[in-house]
Design goal:
This protein is an all-alpha fold. It has one domain: MetI-like fold (Orthogonal Bundle). It contains 13 helices and no strands.
Length: about 300
C-alpha cells in the first residue's frame, strides 16, 4: 500500500485559506493590525507599563516625546488630566475589542438561528422572522442604540446586549438567503431521506455549507460594532469613565484641540486603523472563500 506524501496529501481548509490570504498585501496588513490590537487587549500592561488612571496635572497636555516639550516617559503625550495617552489607548483596545467581539458573536448566534429557521421552514415562520427583522432595520441603528442605552443604563454588559440586538437582522437575512439556495440540493435531500431531524439537517448539512458568507460578513460587522461602541462611548452612553475607551478619549480631548491635537487624534487613528483592517480583511476573505478565485489562480 503506497504511503501518502506531503505533495499528495490535501491541505486543510484552514491552511489553504491562510495561504490565499497571505498572498495579498492588504490581508497581511489587516492581520498585522488586528494582531497588534489583540496583543494590546490581552496583555496591555506588557505593551504599556504606565498606569492609565494615574493623574499628574503638572504633566497635562504634553505633546508626543519626539516633539519639542515632550517627555520620553510619555511617548504619545498626556491628556488634560496628565494621564499617559499610550497607556490609555492600549488599555482602551481591551474594552473596544471585548465589546465589539462579544456583540458580533451575540448577533451572529441569534441571527444564524433565526436565518436557519426562516430559510429551512419557510411559510409563516419565515414571514414572522423576516417581518421582525424588517421592523428593526426600519429604525436608524444609531438612534435605536442610543434610545435603548438611555433606557437600560450604561454598562459593559448592557452595551454588548444592545449592540448584539442591533446586528442580528443582517445575519438573519444573509443566512436565510444562503439557506434558500442550498436547502434543495442533493446532500440535504439525502440527509432528509436518511431520517435526519430538522435540527440535524440545519446544523450538519446546511450550516457548514453557508458558513462562508457568515465569516465574511462577521468581519465587516466587527468594524461596524467598533464604530458603534466608539460612538456610544463618545456620547457617554457606553463604558463609563475613568475606564479608558477610544470613543471616550476623543470626547475628553475635543475640548483641548487648540492645546493638544493628539488627545483626540491618536485614539481616532486607532479606531480608523482597526476599522480599515476589518474591512480589508472582509474583502480578502470574500475573495479567498470564493471557489471561482481558486480556479482563476490555477
Amino acid at each position: 500500500m503506497p504511503s501518502s506524501t506531503p505533495e499528495s496529501a490535501s491541505a486543510s481548509p484552514g491552511r489553504t485559506l491562510l495561504e490565499r490570504l497571505l498572498r495579498r498585501w492588504t490581508a497581511r496588513f489587516s492581520l498585522l493590525v488586528l494582531a497588534i490590537g489583540l496583543v494590546c487587549a490581552v496583555m496591555p500592561d506588557v505593551v504599556a507599563s504606565l498606569d492609565p488612571y494615574d493623574q499628574d496635572l503638572l504633566m497635562r497636555l504634553l505633546p508626543p516625546a519626539w516633539v519639542e516639550g515632550g517627555d520620553p516617559m510619555h511617548l504619545l503625550g498626556t491628556d488634560h488630566l496628565g494621564r499617559d495617552l499610550l497607556s490609555r489607548i492600549v488599555h482602551g483596545a481591551r474594552v473596544t475589542l471585548f465589546v465589539a467581539v462579544l456583540a458580533v458573536l451575540g448577533a451572529a448566534l441569534v441571527g444564524i438561528a433565526a436565518g436557519l429557521a426562516a430559510g429551512h421552514y419557510g411559510g409563516r415562520v419565515d414571514s414572522v422572522i423576516m417581518r421582525l427583522a424588517d421592523v428593526q432595520l426600519a429604525f436608524p441603528v444609531v438612534l435605536l442604540v442610543i434610545v435603548v442605552a438611555a433606557v437600560v443604563g450604561p454598562s459593559v454588559l448592557n452595551l454588548v446586549a444592545i449592540l448584539a440586538l442591533s446586528g442580528w437582522p443582517r445575519f438573519a437575512r444573509i443566512v436565510r438567503g444562503s439557506v434558500l439556495t442550498v436547502r434543495e440540493l442533493g446532500y440535504v435531500e439525502a440527509g432528509r431521506a436518511a431520517g435526519s431531524s430538522d435540527t440535524m439537517l440545519m446544523l450538519r448539512h446546511i450550516l457548514p455549507n453557508v458558513a462562508s458568507p457568515i465569516i465574511v460578513y462577521a468581519s465587516f460587522e466587527l468594524a461596524r460594532m467598533i464604530l458603534l461602541e466608539a460612538t456610544m462611548s463618545f456620547l457617554g452612553l457606553g463604558v463609563q469613565p475613568p475606564t479608558p475607551t477610544w470613543g471616550g478619549m476623543i470626547n475628553d480631548g475635543r475640548g483641548y484641540l487648540h492645546l493638544s491635537l493628539g488627545a483626540s487624534l491618536l485614539p481616532g487613528l486607532a479606531i480608523a486603523l482597526t476599522i480599515l483592517a476589518c474591512n480589508l480583511l472582509g474583502d480578502d476573505l470574500r475573495d479567498a472563500l470564493d471557489p471561482r478565485m481558486e480556479l482563476e489562480t490555477r
